[in-house]
Amino acid sequence: MKNRFVRVLGRAAWSVVAAGFAYVFIASGVRKLTDASTFYSSLRGFALIPEAMIRPVSFWIPIIECVLGAMLAVSLVWIRLAALASSACVGVLLGFAAFLSCVAILGDTDLPCGCLAGESSGTVLQGAVRNAGFSIILMLAGLAGWNAREVPDQVRTSCSVR
Fold first, then answer.
1. Nearest to residue 21, comparing CAs of 115, 146, 144, 138?
2. How many structural domains does the chain have?
């Protein structure tokens, strides 16, 4: 009974967090795709990416965000995808946080973070802290979701100590 309650609670926690982050990733990616010139200008303003890389980076980041959002959405139905989806999203969020931290360290703390291309989503320092916090939430919810998966009885009995 206790294990079932823990699984249901873990699944519920994962569902709420995954649905929220799926929306955030997809909305952010779509916003950057629809306002590509603003996102391109934002990346260029950071002066941290080589000029030759700005165009490909501004193209691929929104696509990656949309794919990650879709993975999170699919993991609501197929819980076995939870660990992969949350790990990939945590990696991307920590990468964004590290990038924004570098921009802030270089002294450009008042620049907009560019997270929502054209809409105010805070400064680079606020974006770095927000992404680090989001990654912790997503990692904990991913662990809860992974632990909530159903393990077939034959696997459970074949792995037990006799």
1. 138
2. 1
Instruction: Answer yes or no: is 36 within a domain.
Output: yes
Predicted model pTM: 0.77
Model confidence pLDDT, tens digit, residues 126-152: 788 888 888 888 888 777 766 666 544
In a domain, 157, yes or no: no
Q: Which of 64, 53, 56, 55 is nearest to 29 (CA)?
A: 64
Is the Cα torsion angle 118, 119, 120, 121 positive or negative in sign?
negative
Helices (H), the chain: 2-34, 36-46, 51-75, 82-105, 124-147, 153-158
- The verdict on residue 158 lying in a domain is no
Q: With beta carbons less than 8 A apart as the criterion, state whether 88 and 68 touch.
A: yes
